[in-house]
Amino acid sequence: MREIPLEENHEALAFGEELLAGRCDILILLTGVGTKTLVQILETRHPRAAILEALGRVGRVCRGPKPVAALRGMGLEPGLAVPEPNTWVDLLRILDDRLPVRGLKVAVQEYGVSNRELLAGLRERGAEVTRVPVYRWALPEDLEPLRTALRAIADGQVEVVLFTNGNQVENVLKVAREDGLLDSLRAALARAVVASVGPMASQSLRDHGLPVDVEPPHPKMGPLVREASLRCRDLLEARRGGPGGGGAQAKNGPAVALATGATVVARDPLAESLFMRACRREATPVTPIWLMRQAGRYMKEYRDIRARVPFLDLCKNPDLVAEVTVYAVDRLRVDAAIIFADLLLPVEAMGLSLSYGKGEGPSVDPPVATERDIDRLREPDVGAELGYVFEAVRRTRRALRPGVPLIGFAGAPFTVASYMIEGGGSKSYVRTKSLFLRDPGAWHALLDRIARVTIDYLGGQIAAGAQAVQIFDSWAGCLAPPDYREFALPHTRKVIAALAPGVPVIHFGTQTAGLLPSFREAGGSVIGLDWRVDLKEAWDRLGDVAVMGNLDPAILFAPRAEVRDRARALLARVDGRPGHVFNLGHGILPNTPLDNVLALVDAVHEWGGV
C-alpha cells in the first residue's frame, strides 16, 4: 500500500485552528508518517514556529517509536510513549495509568481508516474526541506482484493467506474484481487457511464474508508468522478430513501468500489460547504468562476496594470478585485469569469459623485436634454454601475477553487440613504432624472428608466456566518424602483423578524440591515450581508433563532492566521446550512496583517461544 496525503483535508485544517487557539488538551499520534504529514498540512495555513509552539503546549501521546522519532526530529519531546506491542488497548491502558482523559479534548491523528475501538474507548472514558485524518491508503503503483499472487491463490496454488491490515482486504478484493477473479478467489480462500494479524483486519475479512482461521495472541508480524507455521498444517488436514485426506499439497509444505500478514486459530479461542495449549504441551509462538496473586495489594485499585470492603466480604461478592479478577488481567495483559477467592472458604462450609485480622493471616476456630473434632465437621452442600464462588466464576467468565482462560482453584487436602489443625499458619506444623503420627486413622478420615468437599468445589467451578484449575499444596514442603507419600499423596491423587477429563490441573507447592517425583505421581497436567529449584533440572526430573514457574517474586523489586534480564535468562533455560507456563515461584508480594510487573509480562511476550 501507498500512503497518500488527502488533497483537501478540511478536518485536519479545522483541528489546526483549534490547536493554535489552545482548545486541545491531548494529541494522540499514531504513526510517524502521519505526524510529519499533519505538520505539513498545517504549514499550508500557519507558520511552522507557531505550529510547533502549539504542539509543545498539548499533552502528546505517541503510539510506538515512529511518532517519537518524528517529534524529536522537530525538536519536541514525545510526552507519553506507548510501549510494545503498542496496540490501541495498550494506548488506553497507559492513558488510564498516566493521563486520565475524562473531561478533556482529545485529538487522534489517524492513518488510512479510523480505529473505532480506540475512539469508542476514549469516549467511554469521558473524553471529547476529534478525528484528524492525514492520509489515505492507496494501491501500489506496480500492481503486477499483487496480481500474480491473486492468480496463484485463485488457481489453488496457495494454501495459507496472511493479512496484516484491514485496508489490504479492500485492495485485494478490488483488484480481484477488476481482473475477473473475485468468485474464484472467494472459493479458494474458503479452502485455504486465512490468517489475520489482529481484530481490525479480522473484522474487515468478516465484513466481506471471508473466513478467519487464525489470529495471533499479539498483533505483531513475528507472533503471526510463528503461529502460522505451527498451526497451518493441522488446520489444512482437519479441513480435508484428516492426515492425507484429499487435495494437492506442495512437497515442502503448504504454500503461503502474504497478502498482508497473520496467525492464531479463531475456532475455539479458549481451547486454542496460549495458556491452554501450553498446558497440553503444544508449541506456542510466545510463552504464556499469568501470575499468582495478580489481583492483590500491590495494585492501588485493589487497595481502594479493600479499604471499604473486608476481605471475606469481597470473596463472597460475585460482582466485586469479577471486577478485581478481570481488572488484573486487562491491566497486566496476562494470558490467563485466576478467580479471586480464598483457599480456606470450604473450611467455613465444613462448620469452622474463618477470620482475617488486619495485616494477619487466616485464623480457623476451633482448631481440629481429635477424632471427635473431625466427627463434628459438617458434610456441606457445596452448591448451596459455596455457590457464591460458582456465581463469581460465571460472572467473571462473561466479563473476560473471549480468548482469556479462567483458572479456578482450591487447597490440597493436606494444606487445608494443616490450617484446620494449627488454627492458622505455622512454622513447624507440629500439631499437624503429631496428629497423623499419633492417630493415622483419624488423619485419613479428616483428609478423606476434605477431599470429597474439594472434588465438589473444583467440579462446581469447572461447571460454572473455569477452563482449568489449580491445586495449592502450599505447606506440603514441610513433609519428609515418606510422610508425603503416606499422608498427603493419596488424597491429592483422589481429588485430581475425580475431576473432569481434559480440564488442565496445575499442581503447585512450595519447598517441594525433594517431593517432585511424588508430586508428579499424585497427578496434574502442569506441575508448579517455586523459585528454589532450577526449572530445567526440575523439568528433566519430572519428565513428560508441563511445568509452571518459577521466577523469585522478590526479583520484581529489582531495577526494571534486571527484571527483564532475569525473565529472559529463565526463558533461555527453557529453550523453547513446549509446555512452559511462565509464573512466579509464589504470589506477587505486597508493595511490588506495578511497573515492574508490567515490564515482566512485556519481557516474556517479547521473548517469543518456539
> What's the CATH C level of the largest domain?
Alpha Beta
Strand order, largest beta sheet: 11-14-15-16-17-18-19
End-to-end distance, in Å? 31 Å
Instruction: Note the total helix count.
Output: 28
Topology overview:
Elements lengths: L1 E4 L4 H11 L5 E4 L2 H11 L5 H10 L1 E5 L1 H9 L6 E3 L5 H11 L6 E6 L5 H9 L3 E6 L1 E4 L5 H11 L5 E4 L2 H13 L3 H10 L1 E4 L2 H9 L13 H19 L16 E3 L15 H6 L20 H7 L4 H5 L2 H15 L4 E2 L6 H5 L3 E4 L5 E4 L5 H6 L5 H4 L1 H13 L6 E6 L1 H10 L7 H9 L1 H25 L3 E6 L7 H7 L1 H10 L6 E5 L6 H7 L3 E3 L6 H8 L3 E6 L8 H15 L5 E5 L9 H14 L3
Parallel strand pairs: 2-3, 2-5, 3-4, 5-6, 8-9, 8-10, 11-14, 14-15, 15-16, 16-17, 17-18, 18-19
Antiparallel strand pairs: 1-7, 12-13
Helix pairs in contact: 2-4, 5-6, 7-9, 8-10, 15-19, 19-22, 20-22, 21-22, 22-24, 24-25, 27-28
Describe the structure.
The protein is an alpha/beta fold. It folds into three domains: 2-138, Rossmann fold (3-Layer(aba) Sandwich), CATH 3.40.50.10090; 144-258, Rossmann fold; 274-607, Alpha-Beta Barrel (TIM Barrel), CATH 3.20.20. It has 28 helices and 19 strands. The strands form five sheets. Strands 11-14-15-16-17-18-19 form a seven-stranded parallel β-sheet. Helix 2 (32-42) packs parallel to helix 4. It is globular.
